[in-house]
Specification:
The chain has one domain: HIT family, subunit A. The protein is about 20% helix and about 20% strand. The protein is built from two helices and five strands. The radius of gyration is 14 Å and the shape is globular. It binds guanosine-5'-monophosphate. The site of guanosine-5'-monophosphate has 11 residues, from strand 2.
Length: about 120
């Protein structure tokens, strides 16, 4: 993936949030992941779930990261419960790479809810 214009994943804003270098309202946290609100929400509920370990995106995960991958999904569901949208439903999105619309080169799952979401995405 051409990443000349992107900083290494350890230097992104999400890496700094994961290292607790930036004041952040934490919605959920365990030993592998941390969740917080998206700064530019696209729905009434829009949270991000990131690994504490720096990983560029879904495509950079390996079999060694099975537990981490599961933690991101389970963390997404827990965030939905905590924010009161588990009953009405959510969409979890992982943008990966340029065609996927990824703008921050650090793995993150979007948790969207609180309104009906259309399909397909643009
Ligand atoms: P992507 O397009 O890479 O899938 O999503 C990146 C997301 O990160 C966007 O929804 C954007 O609003 C969010 N974002 C970018 N910078 C920050 C930030 O500094 N803090 C928070 N909380 N979210 C951010």
């Amino acid at each position: 993936m051409p990443d000349q214009n992107n900083p290494p994943d350890g230097d992104t804003i999400f890496a700094r949030i994961a290292r607790k270098e930036v004041p952040t309202e934490v919605l959920y946290e365990d030993d592998l992941v941390i969740a917080f609100r998206d700064v530019n929400p696209q729905a009434p509920v829009h949270a991000l779930v990131i690994p504490k370990k720096p990983v560029r995106n879904l495509l950079a995960l390996t079999v060694e990261d099975r537990e981490l991958a599961g933690a991101i999904l389970l963390g997404s569901a827990e965030v939905a419960r905590r924010l009161g949208v588990a009953e009405t439903g959510i969409r979890v999105v992982l943008n990966a790479g340029s065609d996927g619309g990824q703008t921050v080169p650090y793995l993150h799952a979007h948790v969207l809810g609180g309104r009906p979401l259309t399909w397909p995405p643009g």
